[in-house]
Amino acid sequence: MFLCRKFKFDAAHNLVNYNGKCEKLHGHTYHLSVVLKGSLNSEGMVYDFTEVKRIVNELVLSKLDHAYINDIIPQPTAELIAKWIFRMIDNPLTCDNCELYEVQVWETENSSVICRREDL
Known about the structure:
Helices cover 24% and strands 37% of the residues. By secondary structure, it is α+β, with helices and mostly antiparallel strands. The chain has one domain (2-119): 6-pyruvoyl tetrahydropterin synthase/QueD (Tetrahydropterin Synthase, Chain A, 2-Layer Sandwich). The chain has a five-stranded mixed sheet with strand order 3-1-2-4-5. A hairpin with a 2-residue loop joins strand 4 and strand 5. The radius of gyration is 15 Å and the shape is elongated.
């Protein structure tokens, strides 16, 4: 089964190694989807939604929300943000019956990237 929890955060960034309008400081309301893949545990869940929320809030949103992302990720493309998020939450969300499957980051309503384990 797949378990999905969605989040959103606001942040600013600029793309240093880029020639275009995104090289200038600007912001986004990012949307984030965290997907776990696994089997049901003894409580009939893949993972507790409340715990997913706590872990993502603590390890990701507390650092990225209303932040200048370049202070954390030097070239903060959506791709590199997704990889950073995956690495931050991979171990804490892994348990006997499930593991982190993918992280999807929407930079705009129509533009997103998906990061899976093989992309690290």
